Amino acid sequence: MQIQCxxxxxxxxxxxxxxxxxxxxxxxxxxxxRPAHKGNGLLWEFVGGKVEAGETLQEALIRExxxxxxxxxxxxxxxxxxxxxxxxxxxxxxFFNAKIVEGVPQKLEHNDIRWITPDELPNYAxxxxxxxxxxxxxxxxx
Length: 142
Prior knowledge:
Layout: E1 15-25, E2 28-33, E3 44-45, E4 48-50, H1 57-69, E5 72-85, E6 90-102, E7 112-116, H2 131-141
Parallel strand pairs: 1-6
Antiparallel strand pairs: 1-2, 1-4, 2-3, 2-7, 5-6
């Protein structure tokens, strides 16, 4: 008899700390399309990435926004936190509210970037780890 592991039973995967920015401009927020050649290629996500050793979550988010969009952000409060297990990685994601204080977003690492309203969310396919946060955005906007 074979027993399948559920995603929460994948204890062999190291938990990686990830930060993302929910960047608002008036009634729209910024989403980014992952490059085709990376994991979850061409799915949509929020700007951010892994926290490096010695960084605070806020410092990591500021660095990631510079690296990926060439903008400086002011990091606000935590919007949500999520644990998610992909087949090859386990992540703890902290979603921060953020605001651009300098620069205009550029596609330095992403295939595309867009400003959308919460009502437009169903038109985009996002990474699985973002599902809970997307529902929270939609609830808050209604």
